Amino acid sequence: MERAFQTALWLLQPEVVFILGDVFDEGKWSSSQAWADDVGRFWKIFRHPPHVQLRAVAGNHDIGFHYQMNTYKIKRFEKVFNPERLFSWKGINFCVPGTQLPADSTGGPWLISCPCLSFVMINSVALEGDSCDICSGAEAELLEISHRLNCSREQEHRPQECGDRQRLPASAPILLQHFPLYRRNDANCSGKDAAPPDEKYTPFKERYDALSQEASRKLLWWLRPRLVLSGHTHSACEVLHGAGVLEVSVPSFSWRNRNNPSFIMGSVTPTEYALAKCYLPCEDTVLTTYCTAAGGLVLLTLVHAGLVASPFHFGWNMLRKFKTT
């Protein structure tokens, strides 16, 4: 992951990197010391120059599923990935391996705003819909973001309804979250990094494999995004929701979950976006290369030590013998 990420930074030169959750494997269980060690390891792997922004949304492995989530775990995550209140570009290039209304103890959404672009970063674990304190706070912040976005879209027609709210870009936002929006399964997903055939038709469990139908409808209705980027399933998928809103589920960036990890490279303007998938080397290809190189080095060492006849001399002797015959 470190080599792939550093190469991607050098080659693609993104302005923003979004990580769509599950930054850590055992964040939901980690002690304070283990968490600090993991954070240090993360910043070593995903180090980046100051001009590159890195943003992350929380996943179930970072703060636990809803029944494991608590204020302490959310604050601990946000202490590491607490973005600036506002940062701006006219257009951005970004990599995905997912201004904020500052995320408080509710773990609510982060709203990242550029002069022409808006990204809404959701704590999808908090969209359980059971009216717990964390979930209620997250929904309240989503509604506030929705109002601000709608005011920006309609400020020319109904400016009196928006009062003194700070204006946001009028373009539709891009939604970034860990859990995908509701879908029955991955049956309609295709591509070499889609779910394997024996898993495609396994039904998704709401609030575990994907958001509930209710939470998905709320996000689409309140925020009216033009694009949704999600993770969690470890496999790729593209789904059209509602009035043609595209959701792209981004696969794992690690060999642990699949042989062919990948990430999304994107370029966004106020009215358009372009996405391309970038693949990391396949694990079996790298291992085969290492084994071949190691075998070659062992053979050279044995030849140099005189324990094995040189293939060159052996071939030359065989050729001379053939010519003599």
From TrEMBL:
It is found in: Endoplasmic reticulum-Golgi intermediate compartment membrane. One of its GO terms (cellular component) is endoplasmic reticulum-Golgi intermediate compartment membrane. GO terms for biological process: GPI anchor biosynthetic process; vesicle-mediated transport. Its cofactor is Mn(2+). Pfam families: Metallophos. It comes from the Eukaryota. GO terms for molecular function: hydrolase activity; metal ion binding. It is a multi-pass membrane protein. SUPFAM superfamilies: Metallo-dependent phosphatases (SSF56300). The chain crosses the membrane at residues 293-316. Keywords: ER-Golgi transport, GPI-anchor biosynthesis, Hydrolase, Manganese, Membrane, Metal-binding, Transmembrane, Transmembrane helix, Transport. Residues 12-235 form the Calcineurin-like phosphoesterase domain. PANTHER family: METALLO PHOSPHOESTERASE RELATED (PTHR13315), METALLOPHOSPHOESTERASE 1 (PTHR13315:SF0). Interacts with GPI-anchor proteins (via the GPI portion). Interacts with TMED10. Metallophosphoesterase that catalyzes the removal of a side-chain ethanolamine-phosphate (EtNP) from the second mannose of the GPI-anchor protein intermediate. Participates in the glycan remodeling steps of GPI-anchor maturation to allow an efficient transport of GPI-anchor proteins from the endoplasmic reticulum to the Golgi. Belongs to the metallophosphoesterase superfamily. MPPE1 family. This is Metallophosphoesterase 1.
